[in-house]
Structures are given as structure tokens and as C-alpha cells.
Amino acid sequence: MNDVFRLPLGDVVETAVRWMIDVLGGFFDVVALVFNGLYGWLDASLSTPPFWVVILVIAAFAYWSKGALLAVGSAVGLLVIVAVGQWANAMDSLALVILAAAVAIAIAVPLGIWAARNDRVSAALRPVLDFLQTMPAFVYLIPAMLIFGVGPVPGMVATIVFALAPGVRLTELGIRGVDPEIVEAGHAFGASPGRILRQIQLPLALPSIMAGVNQVIMLSLSMVVIAGMVGAGGLGGQVVQSLSRIDIGLGVEAGLSVVILAMILDRVTSGFSTPRSRTVRRAGGVSSGAHGGDADAAHPASVDAATPATARPAGPTRPEATGDAPAARPEPAHV
User: Where is the ABC transmembrane type-1 domain (predicted)?
Assistant: First the structure.
């Protein structure tokens, strides 16, 4: 009975993947070469300097993001990673996360903007994003490993696909959540759609976009352990190794290092979305930059300024309290 109604979906997908390998093998080789080169350069940039130099740089970013408390906490957490002997593995994982998150953000933000400006694109992307978010992360490793082999590249590709969806969704949500009246004001003053996007919609949607960036980074870091199963190395490789050896100590050290990196990346990225005063002021200034003094011409400074001089009363509007009969009150000017 099951053989009669069985849908050969797995066979179809496997055939499609093998066809892609045969037809697009050259393209995948170029992608693997580029990713390997970028990963090697970034990993060397993080691993070659002394650990205290990297700690100072990360602490400076933390201070710029949220202040001295986060900078001190980040430095202490990174010193703990050094103390447990996981610094080199942590830098390998950090390089993989930074590269994968950067590629995912570079794809997610434009897609989110496109979906926010086009309802058909939004409707077409919605089931794809649902599929990407609900599919188990391990499934992404199978075609990635078949296409790119063993190493950090399949881990990065699976991480990019896995972390892509929240960036697209939160970018679209932030742009759609901008007050339509502000956008209409930009149109009324003659601002182009590109200028409205750059100076109104993106600044006002920045908190939601940064929340999407934060989620992309967190999901990328969550794939570190899974990527270690296909030879990506780093902290994920240490966790996989501790699992195969049943080494509790190594697992705790590598797991604690992952937690510290996750906390630092989460606090730093969330801190950049907090200050909004400068971006809101810039967005509010589009009208004055679009047509110079049009705003002043459309909205007079005061009623008195718009009232002709001959229509204004020359004397006080209330008579003085004297013994004489009150003078006739002048008629108010009608504007």
C-alpha cells in the first residue's frame, strides 16, 4: 500500500542536486575558492595578532556600542576564553560567523527592501522563508557537503541559508512599519523614491533592521557546532570531538566559549540600534533639503505675519480701567 502511494520526492531532489553538481560545477568551484580565500584572510587577521590586541579592538567596539560596562565585560569574557585554551578555536569560529553573517545580511537586507516595496515579491518570498526557517539545520549540510566537499565552505554555505530568513522578514517589517504620513510628506516635497528610502524609511526602520542583523548573527553562531560536523573546525569541531570522546571537560570549555562569543556579539549588535535621535533628525530634515524654503512658504510663521498691516488693530484690544466711558473695541482681523 505504501509503495503504491509513495511520492519519490527524495529521489527527485537527489537527482536535481547531482545535476547541479555536473552542470554548475565550475561556478561552485569559484564560490568555494572565494569563500576559502576570504575565510583564510579573516581567520589570519584574527589569529595572527597577540590575543590582547584583538581583545582591545573588540572592547573598543563594545565601548562604542554601549559604553564602558560592556567593554569591560567583553574583555573579561575573552580573557576567560584565553584562560581555558580555546582562543585559536574561538577565532576560527568568529571568522566563520562574521563571513557567513556578512554574506547573509548582504542578501537579506536588499531582499527585505524589495519585499517591502512590492507585494508580489513579498508573497513569493513568504513560503520560501517559511521553508528555510522550519527545515532542520542538519539537512542543509547534506547538499552543501556534496557540492563543496568537507571543510569550512559547506559550513558557511549552510549557515548563510539557515540564517537568511529573519534578516529578510525584519527588514521588510521595519520598512512597512514606517508611518505612511511621513513618506507622503517626502513625496509632497518632491523627494525621489531613492531619497525617501535612504533618508526616511531606512533610518526609521533601523531598529527593526538591526534586530534582524542581530538574529542573523545569533543563528550563524548557533550553526558553529553543526558546521563542525563537516570539518569546519573551530569551537564546533571541539564540541564534536568532545562528544565522540565523551570528554566532559572539553565540551564545557568549548561550550562556554561559544556562550561568551554569543553574548558579546548579541550585546554589541543590539547596542548599535539604540541611538535614534540623529537618524530621526536626519529623516525629518528631508523636507527642508528637498525644496529649501517651501516648508516655510507653506506654513506661515504666525498669524500676525500673514495679516496685512492695515487689518491689524492699532490700539489695545482691552480698554483701560478709567473713569471715562470705554472706547469702542476695534473689530478683530479675520484671516
Answer: 90-269
Q: Read off the pLDDT of residues 66-86 as tens digits, 9 standing for 90 and up.
A: 889 999 999 999 999 999 989
Residue from 104, 129, 103 nearest 115 by CA:
129
Q: Say if CB 226 and CB 141 are below 8 A apart.
A: yes
Looking at the domain covering 9-48+84-286, what would its CATH class be?
Answer: mainly alpha
Confidence class for position 312, pLDDT limits 50, 70, 90: very low
The pair phi, psi for residue 245, each rounded to 5°, is: -95, -5
Please calculate the CA angle 51-53-56 and round it to the nearest 5 degrees. Answer: 110
Amino acid identity at 302: S
Residue 335: which pLDDT band, with cuts at 50, 70 and 90?
very low
How far CA 29 is from CA of 52, 224, 276, in Å, comes to 37, 23, 43
Q: pLDDT tier at 113 (50, 70, 90 boundaries)? A: very high
DSSP notation for 19-55: HHHHHSHHHHHHHHHHHHHHHHHHHHHHHSS-HHHHH
Q: Tell me which residue has cell 527527485.
A: 12
How much is the average pLDDT of 210-218?
A: 89
Q: What is the pLDDT of residues 19-64, one digit of tens each?
A: 888 888 888 889 899 999 999 899 899 988 999 999 999 999 999 9
Q: Is 56 exposed, middle or buried (0-12, 13-18, 19+ CB in 10 A)?
A: middle
Q: Which residues contact 143 (CB under 8 A, 6 or more apart)?
A: 17
26: how many CB neighbours lie within 10 A of its CB?
8
Question: With contact defined as beta carbons under 8 Å apart, do 139 and 226 qualify?
Answer: no
DSSP H or E stretch at residue 161: helix 152-176
Rounded Cα–Cα distance for residues 154 and 140 (Å): 9
Contact partners, residue 318, CB within 8 Å, separation at least 6:
329
Could you identify the residue written with the cell 554601549? 66
